[in-house]
Write a structure and sequence with these properties.
This protein is mainly α. The chain has a domain at about 15-80. The chain is about 50% helix and about 0% strand.
Length: about 120
């Protein structure tokens, strides 16, 4: 069998594959963590939570952030490594912990759902 017609071998760097997979997984988890944090802040600002619920959510988010830091360190990744560049829309993850403030009722269009009308559970 000639070299041109035979099966081609692809050299795969196992460490690079594992690191890239971990980068993708941690990026998704970080995105979800940021979304949960923003939702929790909105609920706190709206007064939807009891003091006990606020405490539990805060502790849970701090624990998740700590675990994420441990996993990033274990796999040689930084926060910047997880922030995928989406091109014209910009980076995937927010740069800071503070989300923009939600629109006030008079800024909200009639087609947008009213958050207070939606029942949420933590």
């Amino acid at each position: 069998m000639s070299a041109g017609r035979g099966a081609r071998r692809v050299d795969v760097d196992q460490d690079a594959v594992e690191r890239d997979l971990m980068r993708l997984v941690l990026t998704v988890v970080e995105l979800l963590r940021q979304l949960m944090e923003r939702q929790a802040l909105r609920r706190v600002d709206q007064g939807d939570l009891t003091e006990d619920q606020e405490e539990r959510i805060g502790l849970t988010l701090m624990l998740l952030e700590r675990r994420m830091a441990e996993l990033r360190a274990r796999h040689g990744l930084t926060v910047e490594d997880l922030n995928l560049d989406l091109g014209p829309p910009g980076p995937l993850l927010s740069a800071g912990p503070e989300p923009p403030p939600p629109p006030t009722p008079h800024q909200r269009s009639a087609s947008e759902p009213n958050d207070s009308a939606v029942s949420r559970r933590w």
